[in-house]
TrEMBL record, chain A:
Protein name (Swiss-Prot/TrEMBL): Molecular chaperone Hsp20
GO annotation terms (biological process): response to heat
Top-level taxonomy: Bacteria, Pseudomonadati, Thermodesulfobacteriota, Desulfovibrionia, Desulfovibrionales
Record-linked PANTHER family: 26.5 KDA HEAT SHOCK PROTEIN, MITOCHONDRIAL (PTHR46733), HEAT SHOCK PROTEIN 21, CHLOROPLASTIC (PTHR46733:SF4)
The keyword Flavoprotein is annotated on this UniProt entry: no
Domain of life: Bacteria
Sequence intervals crossing the membrane: none
Domain SHSP: 11-122
Originating species: Desulfovibrio psychrotolerans
From TrEMBL, chain B:
Family designation: Belongs to the small heat shock protein (HSP20) family.
Alphabetized UniProt keyword annotations: Stress response
One record GO biological process: response to heat
Organism phylogeny: Bacteria, Pseudomonadati, Thermodesulfobacteriota, Desulfovibrionia, Desulfovibrionales
UniProt organism field: Desulfovibrio psychrotolerans
InterPro entries reported in the protein's UniProt record: A-crystallin/Hsp20_dom, HSP20-like_chaperone, HSP21-like
Domain SHSP: 27-135
Name under which the protein is recorded: Molecular chaperone Hsp20
Keyword Metal-binding set for record: no
Amino acid sequence: MHQNQTPERCGKAPRIRPAADFVEREDGFYLYLDMPGVSREALSVHVEDDELSIQGRSNHGLCNGERVHAMEFGDVEYHAQFALTDNMDTRHIGAQLANGVLSIYIPRREAQEPRRIRIEVI
Amino acid sequence: MDFGSFYDFPHLLDRMMGEVSQPYAAGGRQVAFPPLYIGESDGTVVVRALIPGARLEDVELTLTDKMLVLKGELKPVQGKYYRQERPTGPFQRVVRVNVPVSAEDVRATMKDGVLEVVLPKTSAVRPQAIRIESR
């Protein structure tokens, strides 16, 4: 395949949801999102109410005048939202970006002991 | 010379080489894993691959006479999965490079989950300006 024209994907950044893994371990929950080509500066992670939202834009520096022989990916806007549940400690969420994967750690919230209520007989 | 035949679109060759690629849905459509970009300028051929999660030791690159072979393996993480969309397992892509490249000058880098291989063409195939003299 050979293209002398500028490929269709050049300059466009469609909005997509990144591929995600959600895993539970003893110490809490882990969310992994594939976001190749996204730098730390082009990434934002927010927690508001009970929702975790993630945005990032890739910058692959493609279409810079090279003759393109194959183009199976282009730049994208990543968007993802996840609902946080009652058993998650939303105040201590941690995030790190490494090798094109955003890893988010959500500690488990300790379950509150059910309170025993004494019933008096009158 | 038919310059269009410099590179074969890799899918068919991958299948011939017994590829075990994983579908990659993040781009909205399924392609072989890892998805590739192949570009060419006057002096170089550039191959880029999206391999999020791969460390340097997870990827092996070999360049034979006419083929660049990219292979490796992505391992699943530990824990109880509730959702699994990221590709795992062995992968391989083969790019046929029909233009002579200087094998010892090939450079490969990984950044933000993107592998970039720059293959400089040998000087014999680089376009060179030829001065025309008048007589």
